[in-house]
Amino acid sequence: MGHTRSVGEPATSRVIDCLLDCTKGNALRESEHSGGCLYLVATPIGNLEDISLRALRILKEADLIACEDTRQTLKLLSHFQIRKPLESYHEHNEMTRAPELIVRMEEGARVALVSDAGTPVISDPGHRLVSLCLRHKIPVIPIPGPSAIVAALAACGLPSEEFTFLGFLPARPTERRRRLQKIASEPRSIVLYEAPHRLRATLRDALEILGDRQAVVARELTKIHEEFLRGRIADLMRAFEENEPRGEITLLIGPPEEAAQSASQRPGAQAVSLTDRVAQIVAAQNVDRKSALKQAARELGIARREAYKRLLNEENS
Ligand code: SAM
């Protein structure tokens, strides 16, 4: 959390205590989980004011906090004057740490899992622990809050009713390109996390494989230098030609233009025939014709039965 905006100290701390008092009714409900359980606690992605009251209370009440990086979490906890035993839980120790935490929870410990920033498990460690808890019938309780995908998607301006989240693309160019090829005919907006030093290469590959679509670089969300760069992929590439991208980045890529417009809005709606579109989807996604037709129908905003009729008409004409 490099450039964080932080809340002013003592007054804010009093306000938080006061607000926490107001949530005591909820606290009683929550403590029905008197046995061991796992809380997945979302933490700020930059701006410490984004922590929720519930997250603070759970962090205070937990018996221990499992975290990706103890130094990072200590900063957060000391800001909110919370003292708790910390255990590291990250991708390199989760094989052994997850079963250890299960034993603790089976003995009655309430464990709060946090990542360095945002919602744990989402492109962050935790999935193994969640699965193990479920297998051991230990309650898993989400404490929702900040997540870069949601913040970026909500404000990006691209179609957001449905979207595909790719997490991080593979770092190796060949695999990255293969991943992009696989989703070339994806009709929804695409959201992905990207490291600043790989952004230019990713934009270059995206331009070549997906075409010059609308896209948004959402940078340093919730921090002092928060920025949304909007334009076509080629515009964004130009914007970063001279200046190396910096900070934390979520990249959003709009749907292919023909999918972005509904059938009724589209000028010359028959530009790509349904037969051709179905064939494209079959080839690009290696799915059967039935699934491809379902997807094409969704792109056109029509029922599957209607799409099937149109397909038959096209084939018979
Ligand atoms: N679990 C986290 C969440 O829910 O947001 C994401 C963890 S992932 C390891 C971290 C990546 O999320 C960063 O490399 C960046 O791509 C994206 N990210 C995190 N914070 C961000 C921010 N403030 N602005 C833009 N993107 C951010």
Structure description:
Helix 9 runs antiparallel to helix 10 and helix 13 (about 290-300) packs across helix 14. The chain has three domains: about 10-145, Cobalt-precorrin-4 Transmethylase, domain 1, CATH 3.40.1010.10; about 150-260, Methyltransferase, Cobalt-precorrin-4 Transmethylase, Domain 2 (2-Layer Sandwich); about 260-315, no CATH class. Mean pLDDT is about 85; it is low at about 1-10 and about 260-270. The protein is α/β, with parallel strands linked by helices and about 325 residues long. Helix 8 links the parallel strand 6 and strand 7 (about 190-195). It has a five-stranded parallel beta sheet, sandwiched between helices. A five-stranded mixed beta sheet has the order 6-7-10-8-9. It has 14 helices and ten strands. The radius of gyration is 23 Å and the shape is globular. The N and C termini lie far apart (about 60 Å). It binds S-adenosylmethionine.
TL;DR of this structure?
This protein is of the alpha/beta class and 317 residues long. The chain has 14 helices and ten strands.
Number of strands: 10
Given as residue ranges, the uncertain stretches (5+ residues, pLDDT < 50) are: 1-10, 262-270
Straight-line distance between termini: 61 Å
* Count of DSSP H/I helices: 14
Largest sheet data: 5 strands, parallel
User: Judging by the overall fold, what is the CATH architecture of the largest domain?
Assistant: 3-Layer(aba) Sandwich
According to CATH, the fold-level topology of the largest domain is Cobalt-precorrin-4 Transmethylase, domain 1
The CATH class label of the largest domain is: Alpha Beta
Give the full name of the CATH homologous superfamily of the largest domain: Tetrapyrrole methylase, N-terminal domain
Tell me the domain tally: 3
What share of the residues does DSSP label as strand, in percent? 15-25%
Order of helices and strands: HHEHEHEHEHEHEHEHEEHEHHHH
